[in-house]
# Entry
Amino acid sequence: MSSSKEKIFSKAVAIQHGDAPIRASKLPAFLPFPLLVLLSLTLSSLLYSFVAEYMEGDLASVARKLDQWHEVGAMVGWRTFELGLGWFGGYDGYDLFALSLLSHGPPLYLLAAFYDVRLTTVLSSLLIDSITIYVPFRLLRPLSPAHAASAEHGTVPNREIVTDFSIQVYVEVLAAGIYSVTLYGAYASYLPVYLVTYFSGIPSIAIAHTATLITLFPIALALGLAAKTFIFTPAVTASTKKVAPVDTEETTLSETFWYNVWGFSERTRVVIKRTAALMLVSGVNTFVHTFVTMDGVEATGAAAYAAVWVLASGLTGLAVGIVSAA
# Structure
């Protein structure tokens, strides 16, 4: 093979796997995930130590001291679960950055909206939580073809949709609208009562009564962008071909059952799996960070608040799935 052909072949191999060539790893197969967890936790601890003095005054009256080993273990365990879900689920750095924004945003929004925590503190915390997930994934795993810059060169299906600015904005606005309407509906129905009853020491719930769809939309816009990145982009680049029907004369009952339950196209399965992952991570993370780390919050209140974001995640996944299938 000539030198020029070898270069073309090597570039093609690199592009089909994302924006970085896949090289034979010298690490043992069991090592990347523990290394990922170690990098994420270490980076998080380091960055939070840098801003601790700046943020401590804002959080002193809100944060609950985690002085029990089981409380610290629960937080570390949940973080490890998040990383494991992303790693073994085949997600890349963009996926995890978006998922972190969608799951860490709700409890931080609660601090800014109802506990008078400065916006700079909230944004700093959100940025640290997202970066400390994104960076380790970016180091240990290349971007998927759906998120890689190579999508512009025609290496993934439906690249014209992935790179079309108007479509991307439409999907982002659609997702943002669902988040804002869901939160507004919670404010207009049950949430204020739960905030007063189960959030001891909450300074004010005025925003729950004064918020409008217009005032909530800018906040929801960031969540809409993350939802588009996490669900729509991977889904629209997946195949629409359905799984071949099973031969009922030769297949087992189990195979027939799973075909009837899960015999969707690859695109539909991507939407379902990612929506379920978003609902799980968003709901549990919101509950854990509200109930465990915030002082005076009862489990019932934390669950009621988390339910808003679980519902918003589910409705967003449904809407984005319908759009991606159109």
Notes: Residues 31-325 form one domain.
